[in-house]
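Q: Sequence in, structure out?
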Amino acid sequence: MAKPAPKQRLPAEPPRTHQTLWIYVFVFLATFAVYAQVGRFDFVNFDDPDYVTANPHVRGGITAENVAWAFTSNDAANWFPLTRLSHMLDCQLFGLRGGWHHLTNVLLHSLAVLLLFAFLHRSTGRLWPSAWVAFLFALHPLHVESVAWVAERKDVLSALFALLALWSYLRWVERPSLRRYLLVALALGLGLMAKPMIVTLPIVFLLVDIWPLGRGLRWREKLPLFGMSAAAAGATYLVQQSSGAVRTSDQFPWLLRVENGLVSYVVYIARMFWPARLAVFYPYPVAVPVWQAAAAALALRGVGGVGNHLQFAQDEFRNDEDPFEEAGLGDVGDAAIDDGAGVDHFDVALAGAFAGEKAAERREVEEVALAGADHQADVGHEQQHSQLQEAARTAIGQAVAENQRKEEGPDDTEQAADDGSKETLQAERAHAQLKEDDERGQDGADAGGGPLIDAEGAKEPASSRKNKYEEQTKSK
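A: Exactly. Output:
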C-alpha cells in the first residue's frame, strides 16, 4: 500500500465577523496615519534623480515610447519595468510634487499589510496573532526606508505582489484549478518585474507547504514558478553585468561572500529586535573574521532548531485538538481520508461523534467526514474498507462506554451497570446498522456503483443518515 500523503492542516475558513472587519480598518488606518507625514517630504539626492527627477523617460509619463523603454532599459543597473511604469504614472498624475509620490508608497505598503493579515488569518486560523504580526510588519522601523523613500518604490511594490501571490497560492491549495494557478503565476511575474529580489518566493511556497499548511514538500507543482524565478534572475544578472555592477571573484572571493552572507543574516535578525545603527548604505567588508562567520553559522543553526521545536509543539497541540480523537475515533478518520479507502467516512465519523456525545465537536467531525467522503476511492480498497470499519466499530463502543463512566456518579453502581447495558445495546444496534449499510454498499459497488447506493442509484441523503445514527446512539 502506498504511503499516505501528509495531512493538510488548513483550518476551516474563518467567519467574516465585524471584529475581523474592524481589524482590517484599524491596521490600514494606523499604517497610513503613521506614515502620512511623508506627504510633506520632497525627493532626496540619492537614487531619486536616477529613477524619477532626472530621468526624462519617467518624467514624460505613460507613452508608447516610454513603456517600451521601461521593458528594455538597464539604467541604474536594474531591470524592473513595473516599477518604472509606476513612477511614470505618478509623474503623469502629480508631476514632480514629491509628497504625492511618497503617499503612493504609503498606499502600496498599507495594502500589503492587509494582504499579510488576510494570508496569516486564513492559513493559521488565528485572528489576534495574525493581526499582531501584520501590525508589527506595518510599523516596524526596518520598513521606514522602503516606505519613506521614493526610490524604494520597488520594495513596497514587489512586497505587495509577493503577498498577493501568497494569498493566491493559498486559494489554489484550497481548490486547485488552472485559473487559480495562473493567478499565482501572474502575481509572481508582476512582483519579479517590480523587483527581482522575490526570486526566492517559490521556496517560500515550499515553506508554507510545511507550515502552516502541513502539505509536505511538493516540488513538481512549483516547477513553472521556479522557471519564472530563474528567468528573472538570469535577466537581472545580465543587466547588472552589462552595467559593471557585478564584481569578479578576484575582487570579492567566494569565501568572503559566504562569510559576509552568514554574518549579514544574523545582523538583520538582530536589527529586527533592536533596530539601531541603521544606514542607507552598508559598504562591503574587506574581510570578515573567521570567528564571526562561525558564530553566525551556529546562531543560524540554533534558530533553525528552535523553529523545529516550535513546529513540533504546534503539531502536538493540534493533534490534541483533533476532533476525531475527541470523538473517540483516534486516527480512523484521518487514515481513511489519507488512504482514500472505499469507506463511507460520513457514516463512520458521524456515528462515532454521536455515540461519543461530544456536542462541541460534532460539527467539526461532520465537516471532516464530509471532506473525506469526497475522496472515496472507486474500487480496489476492500481490505482497508474492512479494517477501518472494524476499527470504527471498536472506537464507537469505547466512546460510548467512556462517556457512560464519566456521567455516572460514584454511588450509583447498580444504576450505572443498567445504563451501561442500555448504552451497549444501543451501540450494538448502531454497529449492526453500519454492517447492513456496508453490505448494501458492497452490493452497489459490485453492480458498478459506490458504497451506500440504493436501488435507484442515488446515495442515501446525508441528513437521513445523520438522524438515523443520532436516534440509535442517543443516550437514555
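Residues 1-7, 320-382, 410-414, 444-460 have pLDDT under 50 and may be disordered.
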